[in-house]
Design brief:
single chain, five-stranded antiparallel beta sheet, about 25% helix, alpha+beta, globular
Length: about 170
């Protein structure tokens, strides 16, 4: 799979996936653009996020959301105020984030694929693509499993978390 910088469109190292298709393209941010984005005279990170053709959030090493593009806000049905500076589990309405201790601090959090993917990418610098993560959320006082496929990519000291798709496992 080809990787292209979403900002400058430069070719980056290819990414291998289980569904490898040499004609498919995934986007990220190259090192040069990442450095330019944190300088005041450059474009803002929000401008970069809005150029991406998929829902994405920028999170820190504790999965606190620092920014999200409009596609992510629409997908989540939330405003920027409801997302920024909130823990990821709260943002995606994980049922366990409401337990004592909150997101990242309950016994359920050890198996959280969202948190695990962000942490692995943050520590290793490796991009993880199409990670399947089932989220348990509450809907009308009933627990519902929602399937996410996410991609995480390190960007400086932050992680870009992309929602590749979202499927509710509700009975039809």
């Amino acid at each position: 799979m080809r990787r292209v910088c979403s900002w400058c469109e430069a070719e980056m190292e290819p990414t291998a996936t289980a569904l490898d298709d040499p004609s498919s393209i995934t986007h990220g941010i190259c090192g040069d653009c990442s450095k330019r984005l944190i300088r005041p005279e450059s474009h803002t990170i929000q401008e970069f996020l809005e150029k991406l053709p998929f829902p994405v959030m920028v999170v820190d090493d504790d999965v606190v959301v620092l920014a999200a593009n409009k596609r992510a806000l629409t997908l989540l049905g939330k405003s920027e105020y409801e997302v920024v500076d909130k823990l990821g589990g709260v943002v995606v309405e994980c049922a366990y984030s409401e337990l004592p201790g909150g997101c990242g601090k309950t016994s359920f959090c050890r198996g959280c694929r969202l948190r695990e993917s962000v942490t692995r990418t943050y520590i290793s610098g490796r991009t993880l693509e199409g990670v399947e993560a089932t989220l348990t959320t509450m809907m009308d006082n009933t627990q519902v499993d929602v399937m996410h496929h996410i991609t995480t990519e390190k960007m400086g000291e932050l992680v870009l978390m992309r929602f590749d798709d979202l499927k509710s496992n509700l009975p039809r």
